[in-house]
Hints:
Layout lengths: L1 E5 L3 H13 L3 E6 L2 H11 L3 E5 L9 H12 L4 E6 L4 H8 L6 E5 L6 H12 L3 E3 L1 H9 L12 H12 L3 H8 L3 H14 L10 H14 L2
Parallel strand pairs: 1-2, 1-3, 3-4, 4-5, 5-6
Helix pairs in contact: 2-3, 4-10, 6-7, 6-10, 7-9, 7-10, 8-9
InterPro entries: CheY-like_superfamily (IPR011006), NreC/VraR/RcsB-like_REC (IPR058245), Sig_transdc_resp-reg_C-effctor (IPR016032), Sig_transdc_resp-reg_receiver (IPR001789), Tscrpt_reg_LuxR_C (IPR000792), WalR-like (IPR039420)
Protein name: DNA-binding NarL/FixJ family response regulator
Keywords: DNA-binding, Phosphoprotein, Transcription, Transcription regulation
Amino acid sequence: MRIVIAEDDALLREGLAMLLRAESLDVVATTGNPDDFLAAVDEHDPDVAIVDVRMPPTHTDEGIVAAVEARRRKPELAVLVLSAYVEQAFATELLAGGGARLGYLLKERVGRVEEFLDALRRVRNGGTAIDPDVVAQLLARTRRDTKLERLSPRERDVLALMAEGLGNSAIAERLVVTDGAVHKHIRNIFAKLDLAPDDRADRRVTAVLRFLEDSNGR
């Protein structure tokens, strides 16, 4: 796995690089600003980019803008975005083009090494990884949505874990239920959110995006 890191905090940047190299992962470049990050993506053709949301010069959304541009240049690039706190607008913007190979984690998650590495591998393998704390805050903001109100408490639990990027077996393990029960809950979620089986879009991604977009509008 070839990795480029874009983080303007030098201590965190080098700490991430050391952690990943200790796991025998190939960190091919570390950068501190969006321009150097995009140049590194062009030069090194990485599999994964780890990108801070807020970067120079204004420390607003430069990291997200650079991540979107990197994906435009290299659509198969997996991107794991790090943020100091929940910024649902950025999470929604990043996922708007489709959820494959994308992650959004709070920086504090890096200290939980196994969880961080699991998220990194998940996005590298084509999945999504949304921080559980982000999901919890977004879910709390969707209570008034009429379609989401159709969901049972257990269906909400399943949707929240889907939003984290977990597959059916991982959801079943987390909730201590069978795979069949999870499949049934997901089928019910699709039905209650009016996501037809013949929709051309990935219904799993669409359900999560609807959840995130509704949260962003509140």
